[in-house]
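R.M. (postdoc): so does anyone remember the format we settled on? I'll just put the structure tokens first.
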């Protein structure tokens, strides 16, 4: 039985917390699992862009019981990991301790640092105390995409999974495969500069010679005719 309650944070070594606070606005029903979040767990947060100020809010609600028989007395917000460099957070209420039948919100804000583009899994850990005792800390996750600077219209985590690149890391040729036809391909460096272009001729598979690129982190950006998709790779 799932025992997670919500995403939030009290302390992270070396990570700053944002000074602003979010406004609590309950927007979901806790149901039998005893909690709910908006957006729901295992979905994408709004995408961010390197060098562009960003903020998003997660609303959370705690019910009165887990499974209809274990009475919730409190939830303790333990930790959060996986935020990109340049991003911080704050929680309302600041104590991070929530009684049963209460609500909270988490503000994630900041400006993603240069070199932080990519897909992130934001993972939170929570402890729950019920009439049966304290459950071991459990986790809840969201996905966050940070796009390179100067790019727009890129898709979030779930959709980028339809683009496959191999090998990764790569040294000479990079092979692309997609469920959709691939049109124009851009190779973008960590600073958001287009360093290579390629025409895949609207095929579902293509290869690009990257032998002349310097070693480092790059991003493949493709256009399937209606949207842009991006994926990270490493040049050996």
């Amino acid at each position: 039985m799932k025992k997670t309650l919500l995403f939030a944070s009290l302390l992270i070594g070396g990570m700053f917390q944002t000074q602003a606070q979010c406004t609590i606005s309950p927007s979901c029903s806790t149901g039998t699992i005893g909690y709910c979040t908006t957006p729901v767990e295992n979905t994408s947060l709004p995408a961010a862009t390197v060098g562009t100020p960003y903020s998003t809010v997660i609303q959370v609600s705690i019910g009165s019981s887990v499974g209809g028989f274990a009475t919730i007395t409190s939830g303790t917000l333990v930790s959060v990991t996986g935020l990109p460099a340049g991003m911080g957070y704050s929680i309302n209420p600041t104590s991070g301790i929530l009684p049963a039948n209460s609500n909270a919100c988490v503000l994630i804000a900041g400006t993603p640092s240069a070199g932080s583009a990519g897909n992130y899994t934001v993972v939170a850990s929570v402890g729950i105390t019920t009439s049966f005792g304290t459950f071991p800390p459990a986790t809840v996750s969201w996905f966050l995409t940070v796009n390179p600077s100067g790019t727009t219209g890129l898709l979030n985590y779930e959709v980028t999974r339809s683009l496959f690149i191999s090998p990764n890391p790569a040294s000479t040729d990079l092979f692309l495969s997609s469920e959709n036809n691939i049109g124009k391909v851009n190779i973008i460096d960590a600073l958001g500069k287009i360093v290579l272009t390629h025409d895949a001729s609207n095929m579902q598979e293509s290869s690009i010679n990257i032998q002349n690129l310097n070693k480092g982190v790059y991003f493949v950006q493709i256009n399937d005719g209606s949207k842009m998709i991006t994926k990270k790779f490493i040049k050996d």
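R.M.: ...and that's the designed sequence above, right after the tokens. Also worth knowing: The chain has one helix and 15 strands. The longest strand covers residues 173-189.
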